[in-house]
Amino acid sequence: MNKFKSALIKLSAGTAIAFTGLVAANTANTSSNQVQAATSQVVTVNYVPGYGIAVWNNFQNGQTTGQYLKHGSSYKVVKSAKDAQGNTWYDLGLNQWIMAKYTVNGVVRTQAAVSQPVNNAEAAAKNWIAMRESGGNYNARNGQYIGKYQLSAAYLGGNYSPANQERVANNYVKSRYGSWVNAKNFWISHGWY
Hints:
By secondary structure, this protein is an alpha+beta fold. It has five helices and twelve strands.
């Protein structure tokens, strides 16, 4: 009887250890799928000039910290995560989370470039216009206006590829406004560009 109890206890202990290892492995996989370390990514806040975006203490059911990051300011991302609704969040360190949809990608800093300032006003203005015009969708259509930047079909010449949309949009903005920042300022004043 003592041998049976001893064998039962050993079997139970072995099962418990195996189960604990399985749970730990599954928990580690779930966490690594939700939160990913960033690789020296820099993002620029792309909201509305004169306003900022809220900083949260967590990407899952967090609360605002009372801090707001100003439009056009740039920050290094420590890691990124997706919440239960599928929204991407960036951790700026020290549990300071911001929603990715209010940012544009900045430059990836190498060791040599760390001392150089992040200047991303053109990219931020371009992204701002794209989000207002089409939500950033290359397939968006509104009558004769097509694509990410809602350009006239005549401008695109029948080629609606993303590469052509980018090229034509850059040429259009450069010839009409001189820069994406100027185009954005015009859009803010007139509701179109």
